[in-house]
Structures are given as structure tokens and as C-alpha cells.
Amino acid sequence: MNHPRRGQAIIINNKDFDKHTGMNTRRGTDLDANNLYRIFSKLGFETKVFDNLPCRKILSVLQLAAREDHADVDCFACAILSHGEEGVIYGTDGHMEVTEITKPFRGDRCPGLVGKPKLFFLQACRGNEFDHGVDMPDALPEVQDELDAGNKATLPAEADFLLAYSTVPGYYSWRNPGRGSWYIQALCAVLEREGTELEIMQLLTRVNKLVAYDFHSNSDNPYMNRKKQIPCIMSMLTKDLFLSPKSQ
């Protein structure tokens, strides 16, 4: 990517939710947001964090970002940390379709990003199934893990989108209150170690392996103990994406 600027990275970090939603506080999400901010900034993104946004404000933030001048940028990135179900993500006041999040960046709405990668990282549940997995030697977390807890997902057909989900359709996504979510921990570790060297799909494949092999749940509830998780990559990219360092 040879434009003067890397581009924007928007992080939406929803921790506390309106009482009527019935959603629990997402303990540990601030760690995820801080780590993502550090890694995205290190990779050259102009990074902004927004905390505890209702649905309407999420749309407003993304619409404003889409309307900015992207002529001299490589790409756009957005990470949403929240509760979710299959096909939906939660604002602090209720849920919204994932397609509403990507819509402002379609080619017919955001001409400055036509032909440029638009990366969305979604840390949220996509259903209520557990992945029982198989027993294997993993490091147990010191703190019990929690869930980012369906409707079929509608995927964007437009080119140059990449949606990186923390889990596959129908399944829970795990978060540790003391360390952050499994997926964001793994994503940040891989991006920090190899983010400027490997192509984005290689990076996300390594994230998949790290989550699959190195994490399992730790809970006093036997039904929720030693469960597994595998992230899911939906790519409509039309070219390789390397986040190589910008020349000074």
C-alpha cells in the first residue's frame, strides 16, 4: 500500500448497557480497546476510540468517518467490541444489523475507499452454542471467563470488505475480565509480532490458530468449563494487503 497515509481506525468499545437491554457489563473490554489502540497506532493508523455508544451514535460515527476524504489513504479499519447475536451487534440501547455498520463504506456511498480494503473486526457473540472442543494442554486463565452473548447473518456482497468475526455463526465468544477477550488478545499479539511482515489473511489465519489452540474457558459451572472458540474470516478483498511500515 503506497498512499501517504495508512488510514483511519475506529474502535467502538461498549462496556455498559442500558438496563432495559438485560445485557451485562463487559468486564475486560477496556483492556481490549487499549491494546487495539496501541497496535493500530503502531501500524500507522489514525486511531480513535469511542466508548459506550447507542446504536444511533454508532451509525453517526461511522457515517462521519465514511464521508471524510480517503483519497490518500491505504485502507480503513473498524473494531467493534460489544455484545451480539448472529447477524446483529449491540449498541448500549439495543441491537442493530451488522450490515448497517458496513453500509456507509460501500462503493456507492464512499467513493474514496473504492478499491481499498475496508477491515471490520467484530468481537461479539453470534449465537448461544458452546464449542465443546477436545481436551488439550492450555494455560488456564486466573479469572473466570465470561460470554459476549441468533437470525442469519447477511454478508456484504460489495468488493474489498473483510469481516473478521471473533467466532463462527451460532456460537458464543469468550472474554476474560482480567485479560480481555480471547480474540482481541490473539489479534493484538499476532499484529504486534508480525503485523508489518505478513499479508492480512496470513495474519488472521495465525489468529485463528492462536485462539483455537491456546484458549479454553475456565468456569465453576461444569457446562461452561473448558469450552473452545474459533474465529471466522469473511473476505471479499480483491488484492493482497500488507501493512508495511510507512517511509519517514
Automatic annotation (TrEMBL):
InterPro entries: Caspase-like_dom_sf, Caspase_cys_AS, Caspase_his_AS, Pept_C14, Pept_C14_caspase, Pept_C14_p10, Pept_C14_p20, Pept_C14A
GO molecular function annotation: cysteine-type endopeptidase activity
Domain Caspase family p20 residues, every copy: 5-129
Residue runs in coiled coils: none
Pfam families cross-referenced by the UniProt entry: Peptidase_C14
Keyword Hydrolase: yes
UniProt cross-references to SMART domains, sorted A to Z: CASc
Single GO biological process annotation from the record: proteolysis
Caspase family p10 domain span: 151-245
Gene3D superfamilies for this protein: 3.40.50.1460
Keywords from the UniProt entry: Apoptosis, Hydrolase, Protease, Thiol protease, Zymogen
Record-linked PROSITE patterns: CASPASE_CYS, CASPASE_HIS, CASPASE_P10, CASPASE_P20
Similarity field: Belongs to the peptidase C14A family.
Protein name per its UniProtKB record: Caspase-7
Organism expressing this protein natively: Branchiostoma floridae
